[in-house]
Amino acid sequence: MKRLLYAFLLALPLCAVAGNPAESSDDYPVVFDKGQGYTHGSRRLNSVSLSGQTLQLPTPLKVYSKIDDGFFSAQVGETVSPTFGYTGTWMNGFVYIDRGMDGAFEAQLNADGSIPAGSDIMAFSYAEPSVGSGVGYNSNGQAVSNADVLNPPAFKIPADLAPGYYRMRYKVDWASIDPAGRPEDGNGIIKNGGAICDVRINIHAANGNLSVESTNGTLLAADGSELPQAVPFGKPLVLKVAPADGYALDVLKVVHGHNLNGEQEVHGVQQYNEYLLPGYLVKGDVVTLPAEFVDGDVKIVAFFEKQEGGAGGEGYALSFDKDATVNVGGPVVVSVNGKEFNLDGNAAYYDFTETPVLVSNAEILDVLVDNSYGKDGYLYVDLNNDGKFTAMIDGNGLPTVSSELVDFSYYKGKNSNGATAEQGGEVGTLAGHLPESLADGIYRVRLKLDKDNISPDGSESIVADGGCVADFLISVVRKGNASLRLFTVDGSIDGLAGTALPLTVPLNQRISAVLRGAPGFAAEGVTVRHGHNLDGEQYVNGNRQWVEEYVAVKAGKVVVNADIVDGDVYLFAEFKKKEGGEWTLVFSDEFDAEDNSQPVDSKWMRCQRYGSTWNRWLSDSKEVIYLQGGDLVARAIPNPDQESDPVPMITGGIKSNKRFGFTYGYVEARILSNPWTGHFPAFWMMPEDQSAGWPDCGEIDIWEAIDTDGRSYHTVHSNWTYDLGNKNDPQSSFNKTIPYDRYHTYGLKWDANTLIWYIDGKEVGRYTKSTDSSKLSQGQWPFDKHFHLILNQSVGNGSWAANADVSHTYETRFDWVRVYQTDGMENTDGTVGVVKVIDTNVVEVTAADGGAYVATSEPLVVEAYDTIGRKVAQAFIEDAGFIPLAKGVYIIAGNKVMVK
Q1: Can you give the CATH number for the domain in which 62 is found?
Q2: How many H-runs (helices) and E-runs (strands) does the chain carry?
Q3: How far apart are CA 438 and CA 436, in angstroms?
Q4: What's the average model confidence in pLDDT over 643-656?
Q5: Who has the most CB within 10 Å: 79, 471, 803, 865?
């Protein structure tokens, strides 16, 4: 049987109407049909922004657009800066707010170009009080002689506006203040390629009002005190759930925004949202409402329901001994989503939790009981993974929203649908409806055969009555694909035939991969971690979340069988240094430090802003360079502060200049990049000594990406190739089509005569040193000196990559970067294979938790090596300092230390 659910469940936002808010055809008029397409060949409005907040217009682009699924926020009295992401020139920008919430924009200008009090026009770049006169002003009242100005001046949100969601209009037009658009008078909005975009703006106070309603329990502040009546705007709200004895939280109803006791929409502008949060999504007794819920006033209604028949006890308790025996009456076959289990003995308890049953792309958990021998069937799912089952029944005898008793065949004369039922009748199919809000993961399921009792641990007479309990695990995977992450040291994991592995793989399909060792290293195998919660504990309340299995390499390949691709998958590759191998890892960064931290100073410095395309908008902001999820994240973002830094975007980059440079070796990085128009990231090298000037000094581009063309670029620049134009003597640039929906490894092998580029271990191009002394004298090979590494995200200017979309956020992620050299090659630290001797009399090393303290009698670069000779850290110590290190044994300036 399949019980009915509350139709409003699933923790989805609830609105008074489906889709976008309804709006009268008379609201916010324009002078053209709102379905009008562009007739001008080259002009388009792509986005609108307000003080760094950006909304992209829906596609296909039309002259009129409305955005209701996003909004801007501004505080009453705040000064804000509007900008237009517009393709085109010689147009003006206008911004309006419907102050009266009356469905229309009222806008006039005084004869001197000033804005009358109470007008809905907020800002404009150029307008003519007498249209066509050629005499115009901006919204600051300043006369404008050059009318080719699009972005208007900043303006202040009117201090007399009540908090609320308002309709805001962005208009691109020529000289006309008319909010509906300039009519077709020869310079009309359609002919000129203008545009109108209506958005919502949340005009708010510093704090919102908070109200709470509840029975049979209450909500408190996180510290157990009473909740305040006002909460800061845009900050998460932490609540402590305190049910009365014998009760549990069923649902939280959260209403947030403005006008909470009035109409949800005012002239099509939605004022508030409703959200239902089922109790099973609350972990422990604390729930955090995200910052977006505190967008104005907040009203919370907490529904607590009585727990019927006990709470199941901690650790999935039973009312009887697990070893108890019963006389069931015969074997019982149970099918869980098609997988059969036999209750064929006389046990009172069956544990089938060794291997989970996969539940994918479905909301129904079907449990078929072929013969219950006069018992009633009860099905439970531990929805919140708290180690117990909570059964809650409403006044109609139906399971409540958050009840973990999800179906039953008989209780007090009814089944879980509320229909009259016969005690001891055929159980048949029990159906657990898995709500859409239930996260993917491992969940404990319990089937109980009992008599007229909903207690999950069993009635007092369950054993005497010949009943039993069976526990199962289910693996809920709705997405149909498994996330795939790769972890390597001294090598890489690639796909077959020179491809890269994707970020996701189909469930229940095998994964074939190639293990490629770095120079001097050989593949051993992979440890496969699969299931759920892969970064967390393996067992949660006794339920195994993930399993690890080892797969040995065969002929350089590994095959992960389909049956273990049952959730997310991590592959941990193992590589071993070859006997007699000459290659040594001399520099690396795995970017595995704490999220939102910065790259380590001993290895990297920020790239500085200059006048070239790639570095013209560089910034030291932490928003454009930071570590996250084991990656270095490099971004180009809309500039949030153009007043103090008048550039439209800020971009990020780091370089190893003055930290690490090298001559010859093998360098490789693993990179994920997101193409977009104007996209221009790079992994490249420049010489430490650039006194010859560019391009004479030389440049090696290991990898670049351009726009959305789906190709990787690999190039050298020099006087020979650039100034003299000898790009094909020999070929100095290469490109290859690759899928940018995944990480790739980009490598360069460099020796005294050749540069060879690789993608995912496959050669894509090579550049060779000439034997002609004349060519060499003209700069054909400026690659016999130390170069340093550069990792950056920049944007184009229309020459190499396209012009930047200044409203877009560009991003490239660097998983790791590694440099290998052989004995005799040189780098900043000296010659590989030649040990630098530091007089231990001038260095004192003391091990400590998390690293080592170092004291020196003279300024030194002090290095730390692991026990197999790899340099893992270095620091410049002038007098005394601390080198952070993970737990392990290290050699530091000739001293062996153990870090705990």
Answers
A1: 2.70.50
A2: 1, 65
A3: 5
A4: 94
A5: 471
Residue 700: inside a domain, yes or no?
Answer: yes
Amino acid present at 520: G
> Distance between CA 571 and CA 17 in Å, rounded?
46
Residues 670, 562 within the same domain: no
In 557-673, the DSSP E strands lie at: 557-560, 568-577, 583-589, 605-606, 625-628, 631-638, 649-655, 661-663, 665-673
| Residue 883 counted as domain residue | yes
Strands (E) located in 184-246:
195-204, 207-215, 217-221, 230-232, 237-243
Q: Does 50 share its domain with 149?
A: yes
Q: Taking all residues of the chain, what is their mean pLDDT, rounded to a whole number?
A: 91
Beta bridge partners of 336: 339, 367
Instruction: Report which residue type is found at 669.
Output: A
Indicate whether 30 belongs to any domain.
no
Nearest alpha carbon to residue 53 among 266, 164, 199, 165: 199
Do residues 306 and 247 make contact, with C-beta atoms less than 8 angstroms apart? Answer: yes
Going by C-beta distance under 8 Å and a sequence separation of 6 or more, which residues neighbour residue 138? 113, 124, 125, 126, 127, 144, 149, 152, 153
**Cis ω for the linkage preceding 236 (within 30 of 0):** no
CATH of the domain at 869: 2.60.40.3080
d(CA 681, CA 811): 8
Q: How far apart are CA 609 and CA 611, in angstroms?
A: 7
How far apart, in whole angstroms, are the C-alpha atoms of residue 357 and residue 509? 16
Q: How far is CA 609 from the centre of its chain?
A: 28
CA-only gyration radius of the chain, Å:
34
Whether residue 247 is contained in a domain is answered as no
Pair 674, 571 in one domain: no
Token pair listed for 225: 């005190």
- Give me the mean pLDDT over the 79-88 stretch: 93
Domain boundary among 449, 477, 505: 477
Instruction: Give the whole-angstrom CA distance, residue 210 versus residue 556.
Output: 62
Write a three-state SS string for 788-816. EEEEEEEECCCCCCCCCCCCCCEEEEEEE
Element (H, E) at 340: strand 339-343
Collapsing DSSP to helix, strand or coil, 857 comes out as coil
For 122, 178, 491, 621, the CA distances from 641, given in Å and listed in that order, are: 20, 30, 42, 11
Range of the domain at 473: 332-477
Measure the CA–CA gap between 163 and 871, rounded to whole angstroms.
58
Residue type, 627: L
Residues 472 and 492 in one domain: no
Q: Which of 290, 204, 739 is nearest to 503 (CA)?
A: 739
For residue range 776-834, list pLDDT tens digits in order: 999 999 999 999 999 999 999 988 899 998 888 999 999 999 999 999 999 998 888 75
Share of the chain above pLDDT 90, in %: 75
| 487 and 472 fall within a common domain | no
Query: CA 311, CA 458: separation in Å to the nearest integer?
Result: 11
Q: Examine the domain organization and report whether 802 and 862 are in the same domain.
A: no
The answer to whether residues 709 and 574 belong to one domain is no
Task: Please name the residues in contact with 774: beta carbons below 8 A apart, sequence gap of 6 or more.
Answer: none
* Strand, helix or coil for residue 469: strand
Tokens of 124: 């404009």
User: What is the distance between the alpha carbons of residues 761 and 306, in angstroms, rounded to a whole number?
Assistant: 62
Amino acid at residue number 408: F
CATH number at residue 468: 2.60.40.10
User: How confident is the model over 858-878, as a mean pLDDT?
Assistant: 77
Count the domains in the chain.
Answer: 5
429 and 570 in a common domain? no
Residue finishing a domain among 156, 174, 204: 204
* Three-class SS of 44-75: EEEEEEECCEEEECCCCCCCEEEEEEEEEEEE
**CA trace torsion 144, 148, 150, 155 (10° rounding):** -10
